[in-house]
């Protein structure tokens, strides 16, 4: 990626959810909670050559991150940043294009404002697995169903989710898309809307579980 480009790329299935078609540099994106959506958001930029850091996710290993599309050679993992996590994140933003953070606690307003200023100054992107007041873009999973289980047997093979995006400024308009997250082949792709609950029983090999997260 050429220095100074205003937007970091995302996977094609996510482009229509974001007002700029990608992750705008200098912005904060919040996902409401930790899920595969967080990794999917950073995978496109990582594959395109961006340096990424993942902070506060001790359960995430290199193999799992690589399986989600991140490039290990350009990835930094900080499983436990400790009580000084805002300073750790600020330092990473100074050297990385993108930082994925799960805060260990509700970010204090002062720390949040300092990190937002660092994001703008450095021109990176902060993706937060959690709530973040003032985030330019928020993405949440509002519904989901799974496929793979037939009449009480089988294995889960894929998850179809409805992702809703809103935010501030250019991101204020609500956008909603159905995605395979992941699909049967493990990829994140666009999906047809899930059948409504009153449309009859699931087809053979499909188990529907509609929920809001």
Task: Summarize the topology.
Blueprint: E1 7-8, E2 23-24, E3 27-30, H1 36-47, E4 52-55, H2 62-67, E5 75-78, H3 85-93, E6 98-101, H4 109-122, E7 125-128, E8 137-149, E9 154-167, E10 175-180, E11 189-190, E12 206-211
Parallel strand pairs: 3-7, 3-8, 4-5, 4-6, 6-7
Antiparallel strand pairs: 1-2, 8-9, 8-12, 9-10, 10-11
Helix pairs in contact: 3-4
The largest β sheet comes out as: 10 strands, mixed
The CATH homologous superfamily of the largest domain is termed P-loop containing nucleotide triphosphate hydrolases
Mean pLDDT metric = 85
State the helicity in percent bands.
10-25%
The helix tally amounts to 4
Give the number of DSSP strands: 12
Determine the N-to-C terminus distance. 34 Å
What radius of gyration results from the CA coordinates? 18 Å
When the domains are counted, the total is: 2
H/E order of the elements?
Answer: EEEHEHEHEHEEEEEE
């Amino acid at each position: 990626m050429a220095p100074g480009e205003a937007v970091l790329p995302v996977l094609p299935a996510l482009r229509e959810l974001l007002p700029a078609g990608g992750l705008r540099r200098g912005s904060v994106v919040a996902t409401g909670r930790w899920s595969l959506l967080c990794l999917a958001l950073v995978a496109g930029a990582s594959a395109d050559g961006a340096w990424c850091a993942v902070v506060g996710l001790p359960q995430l290993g290199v193999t799992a991150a690589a399986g989600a599309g991140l490039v290990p050679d350009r990835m930094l993992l900080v499983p436990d940043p400790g009580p000084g996590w805002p300073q750790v994140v600020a330092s990473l933003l100074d050297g990385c294009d993108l930082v994925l953070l799960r805060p260990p606690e509700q970010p204090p307003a002062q720390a949040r404002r300092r990190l937002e200023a660092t994001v703008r100054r450095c021109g990176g992107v902060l993706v937060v697995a959690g709530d973040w007041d003032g985030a330019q873009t928020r993405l949440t999973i509002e519904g989901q169903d799974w496929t793979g289980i037939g009449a009480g047997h089988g294995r889960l093979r894929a998850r179809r989710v409805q992702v809703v995006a809103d935010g501030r400024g250019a991101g204020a308009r609500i956008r909603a898309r159905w995605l395979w997250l992941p699909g049967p082949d493990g990829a994140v792709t666009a999906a047809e809307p899930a059948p409504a609950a009153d449309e009859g029983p699931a087809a053979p090999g499909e188990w529907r579980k509609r929920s809001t997260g």
